[in-house]
Amino acid sequence: MKSSVFVAFASIAFAAAAPSGAAHANGSQAQGAGWTGKASFYSHGARTASGARFQPRGLTAAHRSLPFGTRLQVTNLANNRTVTVTVNDRGPFIRGRILDLSAGAADVLGFRHKGVATIRMVRLDRGQQQASLQSIDKLER
Questions:
Q1: CA–CA distance, 82 with 57 (Å, rounded to integer)
Q2: What is the pLDDT of residue 12?
Q3: C-alpha dist (Å) from residue 99 to 33, 85, 89, 114, 123
Q4: Residues 76, 99: Cα–Cα separation, whole Å
Q5: 100-104, 106-110, 114-118, 128-132: lowest mean pLDDT where?
């Protein structure tokens, strides 16, 4: 009985001392609907895991588990540049990274020359995706 009370108390104390976001094994930290962690870029490959042809200049991403077609808003925390990408591949396969971006997305975020950046990624819901597409349509007109 005493040991279970101690374990419960220790768990509560540990949770209170933890940072506001939950830490994950891959080095990311969940914060609300988003994650913060390291991202890298890649610019090679013929096909993605989704079967689509890889386009290095496209605005795409590789994630270990998010469904293909998921749209993410990614922000480089060093310069606050933001890009919206679509998950169409699997990865990254390097420990401590939460996202691999196409070279085109890395260029928009301004970290291609560094190779790795600390980013915040937020999964866009359908309403946000539609608003984002409408914004792009207005810019293209």
A1: 16
A2: 35
A3: 16, 11, 10, 15, 12
A4: 12
A5: 128-132
List residues bridging with 29 in a β-sheet: 23, 36
**CATH number assigned to the domain covering 24-140:** 2.40.40.10
**Cβ-contact 73, 66 below 8 angstroms:** no
31-74 pLDDT, tens digit each: 456 999 999 999 888 899 999 999 999 999 999 999 999 999 99
Q: How many CB atoms lie within 10 A of CB 129?
A: 17
Q: Please give the full DSSP string across the chain, using - where no structure is assigned.
A: -HHHHHHHHHHHHHHHHS-SSEE-TTS-EEETTEEEEEEEEE---SB-TTSPBP-TTS-EEE-SSSPTT-EEEEEETTT--EEEEEEEE----STTEEEEEEHHHHHHHT-TTTSEEEEEEEE--HHHHHHHHHHHHHHH-
